[in-house]
Amino acid sequence: MKVPVRSILALRKASTAVAAVEKITPVTLSSEFFDHIRHEVYGDSKKVDKVVVTVKTEESSKPVLVNRNVSTAFHCLNHINKQFADDAVLVEVIPSVGGSYFSSVNQPLQDQAEIRKIGFDTLENLNLVNEAYWRSCSLVTAAFLREALDVDVDFKFPGGNIKDGFFSVVVKGLDGNIFTPDELGTINRFGKSYIREEKQLEVISIPSTIAEESGINGDNLIRIGRQVFSTNGPVIRSTRQIGRFLILRSKIAAKSEKDVIVGGVSIPTKQPTSSYSWSLIAKNANQKFNRNL
């Protein structure tokens, strides 16, 4: 239920309306824009060519006939079995021409290739998986904050490393108002409900020419529900892969009187932990967030 969050921040908005002078630039990354860019990159979805994608497993390789520019790695992995596909966080794509690269599972495949599943337990790609998970948590946080808050907001993503112990999002449009403990509680309830909806992270890989022409700051366009963001690097497949999740607190960004940084922590669904261990993880993340930003 998003009404409680809107009610809390609607009151705050009314109380600060007189002081608010700076006008927030309207968001240009819309769901319709995402569809437009997808057509620009991949062409007409009704006119498809077939390509063979070979799914590599530890035991064998399985060729799969798929729709070029429409089918994703997730569709291909499902031809092995549903559990195999559900466990995928990223994939390594080895095209028939050109070098291999790492990709989001929901990114359409553009040419004949081999693909290798990468999961949370793929040790040789652990850093890549951790970065993708942290990046995804930041994007999901921005998505549910935009839906929850009764003010127009935009976001910046500072990046960060799993070793920092927390992820963060810069929120522009709160006029320097940090969240109260009651508001944080409501936002966390809203966020956890949002995550439980198992929203897909749709992905478009943006060629540099289209990114420059369209003013997209990043090599990937991500859609979560109806919220769209640009980013650099791959993301996880679904909010279903997000396990324990907590927004820690917010504070004023350095060198800014208006931007607010929101910090959070999470662990994947595939890495269950006890309540006691989770409390220690959250405490450590909160301390690092307070100290480092």
TrEMBL record:
**InterPro entries from the entry?**
Thr/Ala-tRNA-synth_IIc_edit (IPR018163)
GO MF annotation list: nucleotide binding
Q: What is this protein called?
A: Uncharacterized protein
The scientific name of the source species is: Caenorhabditis remanei (Caenorhabditis vulgaris)
